Amino acid sequence: MSAATDVPAIETVQVELAERGYAIRVGAGLIERAGTELADLLSGRKAVVVADQTVATLHLPTLVRSLEGTASAVHALTVPAGESAKSMAGLTDLLDRILAIGIDRRTVVVALGGGVTGDLAGFAAAVALRGLDFVQIPTTLLAQVDSSVGGKTGVNTRHGKNLVGAFHQPRRVLIDTAVLNTLPRRELLAGYAEVVKYGAIGDIDFFEWLEANGRRLLDGDDDARRYAIVASCRAKAAVVAADERETAGGRRALLNFGHTFGHALEAMAGYDGTLLHGEAVAAGMVLAARMSARLGPCTGQDAERLAAHLAAVGLPAELDQVDAARHWSADELLGHMTKDKKALDGRIVFVLLDRLGHAVVRDDVERAAVRTLLDRPKAA
């Protein structure tokens, strides 16, 4: 990997999906210049901007002003902040308001916000008039490196996370690194967990770069942030191009490293905001790495190296650091994992490490081994 300072001020990552391919643009100030960046998509067309209420107060006026010079009309809608907005009721309400505007099939939906907003607005775009173009403008680090890229949209149900949704690729992704300056550190850390994931599953050089530079990223260094975001988006773009719809046992499943455990922890927390997605993924990655070490050939040293880095930056690396786990039971967590949308014929699918920097998908892990890990989650 080259040094972070070698990355241009604005970088483009291409997602290669034939006629559905699109560009991811990364750099500071892209919300302010969104009208110019999206001129080819929006000229003469209506734009419906969907933003959560927190992001709207910070960035919505700037975005609307920029788009008004390009789109024929710009309509702004807000949705509640937080995971609870990503529900069937939230989807129905948003669709009703979008349809009330008087849209047509040339209307473009623009999602401005974190992963919740992107998933909700993207799903609305997928089903309104049987499919509208949409653009992702993610405002959290987690959304910038994960949910805004790849076309997964959807909502949660009482049965689990993201169980209702659609694959609907954006036409473009604009990642404005400057918005991270307004992000609470806890949210920034939650996104950083997904950045670490890319190094853990497929790029040991990137993981080592994060060990050396992660604190710079978290402390506000724009070069480090841009470099890590570009590297993460390139990694995800390559996986999505190879396996767009996450076929059973396909390469895209590797992106779920830590998520099988993490989604179960989120379900235990009731999606009430006490446990952020990235925090759950961080604890889940450590559990998955330790499971890998118990099953081999991954070493305990690799598993603890991952845990040590996550802990060093302030992410939960142990179950007893997760509030949702204080009253957990192994059977309850196993129950949630069985309901995960990636489970196959009742078998829990895990992404495990052969070694730090190389992951594999396995569906042959005995439940007894998982229960033992959950009963004794720390390293021996």
Task: Characterise the protein shown here.
With 380 residues, the chain is an alpha/beta fold. The protein folds into two domains: 4-182, Rossmann fold (3-Layer(aba) Sandwich), CATH 3.40.50; 246-380, Dehydroquinate synthase-like, alpha domain (Up-down Bundle). It contains 14 helices and eleven strands. The chain has helices at residues 34-37, 39-42, 53-68, 88-101, 115-127, 141-147, 185-202, 204-218, 222-242, 259-269, 277-295, 300-313, 330-339, 367-375; strands spanning 11-15, 22-27, 46-52, 73-79, 108-113, 133-138, 152-157, 160-167, 172-176, 350-355, 358-362. The longest helix has 21 residues, at 222-242. It is globular and about 60 Å long. The relative contact order is 0.11. Residues 1-5 have low confidence and may be disordered.
The total of beta strands comes to 11
**What is the terminal separation in angstroms?**
34 Å
| Helix and strand element order | EEHHEHEHEHEHEEEHHHHHHHEEH
Percent of residues in beta strands: 15-25%
**What is the CATH C level class of the largest domain, in words?**
Alpha Beta
**Order of strands, widest sheet:** 1-2-9-6-5-3-4
Number of helices: 14
| Shape, per Cα inertia axes | globular
The number of domains: 2
Q: Oligomer, anyone? A: single chain
- Overall pLDDT metric: 92
State the major sheet.
7 strands, mixed
Helix content: 40-55%
Low-confidence parts, pLDDT < 50 over ≥5 residues? 1-5
Structural class: alpha/beta
CATH topology category name of the largest domain: Rossmann fold
Q: What is the correct CATH architecture of the largest domain?
A: 3-Layer(aba) Sandwich
Radius of gyration: 20 Å
